Amino acid sequence: MSGVYLMISKYLKPLAEVDAAREDHLAFVDGLEKGGFSVTAGRQDPAAGGIILLDVDTQAEAEALIAEDPYVQRGLAVYTATGWHPTRGALAGYQRVRPSA
After folding, report:
1. What digits encode the pLDDT tens for the residues 31-59?
2. Spatial contact of 37 and 97, defined as CB atoms under 8 Å apart
3. How far apart are CA 41 and CA 11, in angstroms?
4. Per-residue model confidence as pLDDT tens digits over 66-84
5. What is the CATH code of the structural domain delimited by 3-86?
6. b/e for 9-47, b at 16 or more Cβ within 10 A?
7. Which residues, including other chains, have CB under 8 Å from residue 87's CB and lie 6 or more apart?
8. Which residues contact 17 (CB under 8 A, 6 or more apart)?
9. From the CB of residue 4, how many other CB atoms can be counted at a distance below 10 Å?
10. Where, if anywhere, are coiled coils annotated (predicted)?
11. Contact, 99 vs 18, CB < 8 A?
12. Is 59 exposed, middle or buried (0-12, 13-18, 19+ CB in 10 A)?
């Protein structure tokens, strides 16, 4: 059964350093979206980190994908993974949609 994982990041460096890598991070997130792995993403308010909602089968898969984030690779952020099955609201009954090859 597929699930979704809330990948919640915490910035480890000042925001100016994080923002210097933001273009690369956003390109990474764009790739996740094009691959059908990212359901939604955005920065927290206040800007202490961000959240990416990943559609993957396991926590290990979520962690492997997020390890490729430039923020992680450059030591700018760490993520925690929280599994989640939406049962109410806009994502209730969420179904995986992967682009055709």
Report:
1. 999 999 998 999 999 999 999 999 999 99
2. no
3. 15
4. 999 999 999 999 999 999 8
5. 3.30.70.1060
6. bebeeeeeebeebeeebeebbeebeeeebbbebeeeeee
7. none
8. 76
9. 20
10. none
11. no
12. middle
53 and 4 in contact (C-beta within 8 Å)? yes
Residue 80 amino acid letter:
T
20: CB partners within 8 A, 6+ apart? none
Q: Which residue has tokens 């993520």?
A: 79
Amino acid at 83: G
Nearest to 12 by CA among 93, 76, 92: 76
DSSP codes joined into one string, the chain: --EEEEEEEEE-S-HHHHHHTHHHHHHHHHHHHHTT-EEEEEE-SSSS-EEEEEEES-HHHHHHHHTT-HHHHTTSEEEEEEEE---SGGGTT--------
